[in-house]
Write a structure and sequence with these properties.
The protein has two domains: about 35 residues, no CATH class; about 40 residues. Helices cover about 50% and strands about 15% of the residues. It has three helices and two strands; from the N terminus they run H-E-E-H-H. It starts with 15 loop residues before the first helix and ends with a helix.
């Protein structure tokens, strides 16, 4: 168990080992939840951010770059426009 203190303006320092494990960087928003007499800090991540991270991992796993994605999207747009509008 790590020990920290409450500083001026209610600030606390999260020990480095926890920050590293949770990938907390400067200005990472945290949700604060009170459970009985305990405070629980949880990294606030939107669903969009979670989805983006999963998507990024999947792209890396397949060896795809952002440029590959854009190129594929352009090809799909051309094909869709041809099928739908005859362009």
């Amino acid at each position: 168990m790590a020990l920290t203190h409450v500083w001026s303006k209610g600030q606390i320092t999260i020990p480095v080992e926890f920050r590293k494990r949770l990938h907390l960087e400067d200005n990472t928003p945290l949700s604060v939840v009170m459970l009985g007499e305990a405070l629980v800090l949880v990294p606030f991540r939107t669903e969009g951010a979670n989805l983006a991270k999963k998507f990024e991992k999947a792209m890396k796993k397949k060896g795809l770059s952002f440029e590959d994605l854009l190129s594929d999207l352009k090809d799909i747009r051309k094909k869709t426009n041809r099928e739908k509008y005859g362009l």
